[in-house]
Amino acid sequence: MRRLFLVFFLFYCLCSEAQHQITFQYDSSGNQTNRTYCFGCSSKSVKEIKEIEAVQEDDFEKFYPEDQISYYPNPVKEELYLKWTASDELNVNSIGVYSITSAVLDYYPIKSGLNNQNLPFQSYSVGVYFVVLNYNNGEQKSIKIIKR
After folding, report:
1. 3-class DSSP state for residue 25?
2. Residues 6 or more apart from 72 whose CB is under 8 A from it?
3. How far is residue 111's CA from residue 39's CA, in Å, rounded to a whole number?
4. Domains and CATH numbers, the chain
5. Measured on CA atoms in the order 30, 33, 35, 36, is the torsion positive or negative?
6. Cβ(129)–Cβ(145) under 8 Å?
7. pLDDT tens, 65-87?
8. To 5 degrees, how large is the angle CA 121–CA 17–CA 6?
9. Number of CB atoms found within 10 A of residue 124's CB
């Protein structure tokens, strides 16, 4: 009985830090690029998400350098910051937030002349979402966002 208890106790000790032993890295579009297993790592070795006071221009990400839409952060915890290039002939009319099953979760009409929008993600559960920008000429662009 003591051996069984000792084995159970050792197993529990090894598994109690399991969430800190596997780390993931993602590229700018949210795709997993690297998974690392670290046996014996402490929770202090896991990189925390940067808490921001003010969004800097360098913080924004783009799918491609020539893209007109930039966003920060991905994965998102509380709020997504969107910024786009507006022109006289091409403006963003609205932004929609969609679940992975294509259900509309939120819809934000955009006033003419604006080139940024903050989208709250606090109320959404952990998962993958799509943010779709609708332009005045009927064109749409979408961004895959991961919510932590």
Report:
1. strand
2. 55, 59, 60, 61, 80, 81
3. 52
4. 1-46 (no CATH), 54-148 (2.60.40.1930)
5. negative
6. yes
7. 555 788 888 889 899 999 888 77
8. 150
9. 16
Higher pLDDT, 4 or 70: 70
How far is the C-alpha of 68 from the C-alpha of 1, rounded, in Å?
66
* Among candidate residues 1, 22, 25, 147, the one with its CA nearest the CA of residue 78: 147
> Tokens at residue 78, please?
């509380």
pTM: 0.58
Residue 13 one-letter amino acid: C
Contacts of residue 96, defined as CB under 8 A and 6 or more positions apart, other chains included, come to: 104, 106, 107, 108, 131, 132, 134
Beta carbons of 141 and 132 less than 8 angstroms apart: yes
